[in-house]
Amino acid sequence: MAIIGNLISRSLRIRKQFTFKLGTPRQYQLQVLHRLLEKAKDTEFGRHYGFQEMLDSPNFLAQYRERVPVHNYSKMHQEWWYRCLEGEANVSWPEKIKYFALSSGTSESASKHIPVTRAMLKTVKKVGVKQLYSMVNFNIPPKSFTKGILMLGGTTSLFEKGDYYEGDMSGIQAKNIPRWFRRFYKPGGNISRKPNWEQRIKLIVRKAPQWDVGTVCGVPAWVQIVFEEIIKYHGVKNIHEIWPNLAIYIHGGVSFEPYRESFQKLLGKPVNFIETYMASEGSFGFQARPGVRGIKLVLNAGIFFEFIPFNEENFDADGEVKPNPKSYMINEVVEDVEYAVMLSTCAGAWRYLIGDVVKFTSVKEHEIVIVGRTKQFLSLAGEHMSIDNMNKAIDNVQKKLGITVKEFTVAGFSYENLFAHRWYIGTDNLNADKEKIREIIDQTLAEVNDDYAVERTSALKEVFVEVLSNDLFIEYLRCKGKEGAMNKFPRVMKGEKLKDWEKFLEGKTVKNQEHPVTRNI
């Protein structure tokens, strides 16, 4: 097996030496868009918006931007995708949809059904292969390529709904993995088919010593829980006493920074942390360079990207896009500007706002960082506080106070004729000093966000902090049916979700307090 590992590692290095760029980012993306339009020109969507006429035009990109409006999930579903769920073929992509990925619905809808086409599954595999080739850039021992790959995703037991199946995107992917990959895949078919997330965790924990795992993939919060349970159950000091060859952790879905400190405590030696950019709508990119904070977008794999500046000119106070926003191609963006990501894909999504807000860390390398969500930011008084800002504040709290914050969420509300923020901090350190946490959060945000600093002297009157048991965050997800490897706790609570969260907390007693959680809302 060591020989095989060395051969694989060597072949990746050789391939890198003989790989040459064939075009510019703009050329790649125009080619992708042209192929998408050509493929879908005879669909109901393509005929409605005149894809053939666009293709006949000398400037099909301008025609596409002019004719096809911006869609969010609600618009796409209400006007087109509902027909796919009713069994109609050739709606926005030329096939009958067999799979629908269920999104956890952090915005817009409680339960989104995202079409997953054969072409999209091929694209996801293609991006995965590209990421494998990029591994040569990292200091990964050759033997790691022969070890097991633990994928903590959704169940592969999909729900049959007449003519189609629905489930987590991770479960759909796992169900369609290549045969050659199955010998590496953990936890294996029997466990991954278990529909109950807690049952899957228990089986993974008990069988962990039987596997030689070299790579782990999954959302940080749930991977952390699995690691902690394995360590506790088997009475070891760290995860490397169970998996000594663990060398790679591939993560995505949320920023890893708030979890980095707590992860280090679970490890016995360094591992490569590699970030990916995946969603129910597809696989978009991965971290290709070690030591660089940035995800490299894959520009020639069935997804056409547009970027809309995330500002008051293009979005309203609720994060809804305004009519006819200005969008930019990959070659037109600039660094350090916040953009909402808009996709056109080989799964029949057209000028579709995925909800993510990104910044380009390198235009040359087309690398981005995810800084927030269009619906998950706070700007009650013009403070424009992004999830990236929040993550930095929490990271400072952990470093300066030496505590582990496993989850958090933030709410904004009216307070004494002005406004205030309330932070709900999930930690096992229930004796943590709330006032010191508040001071660090407030100071950090003022340092990284000029708008926040200004508003703290005027309209944003106060910042409150509640320290809660991390179990409450897990319990909330469980009672909402959102417990599982692909579900993430929302970083910002607004509207009905905030009311629901408050109602859940009513009567919940924090262990280090003699009274229930109180709020000034």
Structural class: alpha/beta
The total count of helices amounts to: 17
Question: What value does the average pLDDT take?
Answer: 86
SS strand fraction: 15-25%
| Shape field | globular
What is the CA-based Rg, rounded? 23 Å
Largest sheet data: 11 strands, mixed
Intertermini distance: 61 Å
Low-pLDDT segments, ≥5 res: 1-12, 105-109, 510-521
Strand order of the largest sheet: 6-3-7-8-9-10-11-15-14-13-12
- What fraction, in percent, of the residue positions are helical? 25-40%
- The tally of strands reads 19
Write a structural description:
Residues 1-12, 105-109 and 510-521 have low confidence and may be disordered. This protein has 17 helices and 19 strands. An eleven-stranded mixed sheet has the order 6-3-7-8-9-10-11-15-14-13-12. Helix content is 35%, strand content 21%. With 521 residues, it is of the alpha/beta class. Strand 4 (159-161) and strand 5 (164-167) form a beta hairpin.
Features:
521 residues, alpha/beta, eleven-stranded mixed β-sheet, four-stranded mixed β-sheet, 17 helices, disordered C terminus
Task: Give the SSE map.
Layout: H1 2-17, H2 25-40, H3 44-49, H4 51-56, H5 60-67, H6 73-85, E1 99-103, E2 112-116, H7 118-134, E3 148-151, E4 159-161, E5 164-167, H8 169-175, E6 185-186, H9 189-192, H10 197-207, E7 213-217, H11 220-234, E8 248-251, H12 257-264, E9 272-279, E10 282-286, E11 295-297, E12 303-309, E13 339-345, E14 352-362, E15 367-373, H13 387-401, E16 405-415, E17 418-427, H14 434-448, H15 450-455, E18 460-468, H16 470-479, E19 492-493, H17 495-505
Parallel strand pairs: 1-5, 3-6, 3-7, 7-8, 8-9, 16-19, 17-18
Antiparallel strand pairs: 1-2, 4-5, 9-10, 10-11, 11-15, 12-13, 13-14, 14-15, 16-17
